[in-house]
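Batch manifest, entry 17 of 40.
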Amino acid sequence: MTSQNAASPSTRSGPGLPRRAIIGAVLVAAALGGAAALGIAGAALRPASEDYVFSRGTGFATGEEARLKAQLSQLAADDRIVIRITGHSGTQGDEAANLKLSEERAETARQVALDAGFPPRRIDWAGGVGGGDPLPRENGLGDRAYQSSLARVTLTWQVRP
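Output type: structure tokens
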């Protein structure tokens, strides 16, 4: 004889998850699924960047301008992407001269962006920081080589909704 009060395994209720946890999980899954479908998961939160080296003054090192143009062409295809261009210089010498040089490098890269068809409204900022944001120095790297590595612009891009 079976008891009619015993619940079948499929109808038993237990402590379970609170309703708000289930709703929260569904909302997070929907948001991540939508972002993944668009190919932008995490892109709005984590900007990407790339450095482009200068040989001297405001002249790009061999191949760097072409590399910058190629990157800008890819970025220009997505209307949600905005860029920042930061010019850098060495850390030795006159601070004001280094700042001016870094600003000129940023302007050179900004002009490359405009010439490559990147919309000006999507250039968030272009400016210089002089020697104020140097790269870490690698072990065994001589001073002259290190200072040369600081001659660069950093292109930073981010997806904005």
